[in-house]
Amino acid sequence: MTRISVKVDGDSFTDEVEPRMLLVHYLRERLGKVGTVVGCDTSNCGACTVHLDGVSVKSCNMLAVQADGHDVTTIEGIARNGQLHPVQQAFHDNHALQCGYCTPGMVMQSIDVLRANPNPSEEEIRVGLEGNLCRCTGYQNIVKAVRQAAGGTNLSPVGASQGSEQA
Ligand code: FES
Ligand code: FES
Fold first, then answer.
1. For position 128, which CATH number holds?
2. Are strands 55-58 and 2-8 parallel, antiparallel or unpaired?
3. How far apart (Å, rounded) are the C-alpha atoms in residues 53 and 65?
4. Where does the record place the 2Fe-2S ferredoxin-type domain (predicted)?
5. Which residues on neighbouring strands pair with residue 12, listed in sequence order?
6. Is any ligand 2 atom within 6 A of the Cβ of residue 135?
7. Distance, CA 5 to ligand 2 centroid (Å)?
8. Are residues 67 and 99 in the same domain?
9. Residues 61-118: pLDDT tens digits?
10. Of the chain's two ends, which shows fewer C-beta atoms within 10 Å, N or C?
11. Do residue 45 and residue 100 come from a single domain?
């Protein structure tokens, strides 16, 4: 067992964990942060996306021990004073979810996309979300939501040359 100290959604935790324990399992099973979900366990779907020191990571793709000394933010830590995060609100406003399974990861990745580029083109949004899979929505409303969160004034229409609706 290895002792780790992490800050998660603003709270500090110190725990003994097996060195092989994945971060997503630590968050869900030890801390009860079940808003972060597992879709594939093979780093393909992005459902498990959280922020490590403010940058998105797939929490099934790293070990809990690698988060030692770091600051983790999950979907459960982004609302403030009972108010949804602007990206959460934009997903709500634009019906950017159906079953909702991908949504925690999509929201966390969208925040990271906007952090890195507050004024992304539609193509940049799609590229930024390409590591997050959604089996329900066709991505269109997800892109609209990110557009709204970005201010809604910065996106060119979808070009015919872009072809696929896949993010
Ligand atoms: S559960 Fe982590 S990428 Fe799918
Ligand atoms: S809303 Fe169902 S997988 Fe995205």
1. 1.10.150.120
2. unpaired
3. 15
4. 2-78
5. 7
6. yes
7. 33
8. no
9. 999 999 999 999 999 999 999 999 999 999 999 999 999 999 999 999 999 999 999 9
10. N
11. no
* Domain around 143: 86-155
Q: Is the CB of 138 under 6 A from ligand 2?
A: no
| CB of 60 shorter than 6 A to ligand 1 | yes
Domain assignment present for residue 164? The answer is: no
3-state secondary structure of 28: helix
Q: How many domains does the chain have?
A: 2
Is 46 within the bounds of a domain?
yes
Which residue blocks in the chain are alpha helix, DSSP H?
A: 23-25, 86-93, 103-116, 122-128, 140-150
Residue 64: both structure tokens together = 């809990």
Query: Confidence class of residue 152 from pLDDT cuts 50, 70 and 90?
Result: low
Tokens found for residue 108:
């966390």
